[in-house]
Amino acid sequence: MSKVYVFDHPLIQHKVALMRQTNTSVKDFRELAREIALLMGFEATRHLPLEEVEIETPICKTKVNMLKGEDIAIIPILRAGLGFVDGMLELVPNAKVGHVGLYRDPDTHEPVEYYCKLPKDIEKRQIFVVDPMLATGGSAVAAIDFIKQRGGTNITFMCLIAAPEGIEALQSAHPDVDIYIAAKDECLNENAYIVPGLGDAGDRLYGTK
Ligand code: PRP
Ligand code: URA
Hints:
Blueprint: E1 4-6, H1 10-20, H2 26-44, E2 50-56, E3 61-67, E4 72-78, H3 85-91, E5 96-97, E6 99-104, E7 111-117, E8 126-130, E9 133-134, H4 138-149, E10 154-162, H5 164-173, E11 178-184, E12 187-188, E13 194-195, H6 201-206
Parallel strand pairs: 1-11, 4-5, 4-6, 4-8, 8-10, 9-10, 10-11
Antiparallel strand pairs: 2-3, 6-7, 12-13
């Protein structure tokens, strides 16, 4: 079974609290998403592979460990997942970025795919799928299905807020995928929105409501 990491770091809790507030501006919401991605990414990348390379310091030649940056892929689930990309790229600037486009049907709440473009060598890469919200889990499960169908194997999922229902659905569909969460909330409401949550993450990131 996959591992679930819930962050208790005060900086992350504070920033998530600001994002939840209705009166947080689009500009601040976007900036907070970038900052939280960076803070969470620091821990979520703990197991990244290193390679030994020889360098020269002003004193002598030596062997040091460096990231195999070209082996990483960040895959946001559109739209709201885009809010996490810049923070992650600040940590791993050489990572490739793939995109999976999904939206939830407003009536059935089922995910509908409209776009998928991944790095060609996805099967070799350590993949970070990012999306601020894990509600029913339908979108994350479907996105990871698409990535696996195209050869992805080594996958981590990162989100801002998760409902227990979404965590359970993702763990049961993809028991090999570890999950990093900034905050675990109480439940879903009748519209499958997370309670207390932060509302519609895509609308809040892009000011579309
Ligand atoms: C939101 C969110 C997730 C999904 C979570 O996207 O960004 O992708 O809902 O819900 P689920 O766990 O029940 O599938 P949405 O469908 O609203 O699309 P958007 O990002 O384009 O706004
Ligand atoms: N998608 C969102 O953006 N927010 C929720 O609470 C649930 C799904």
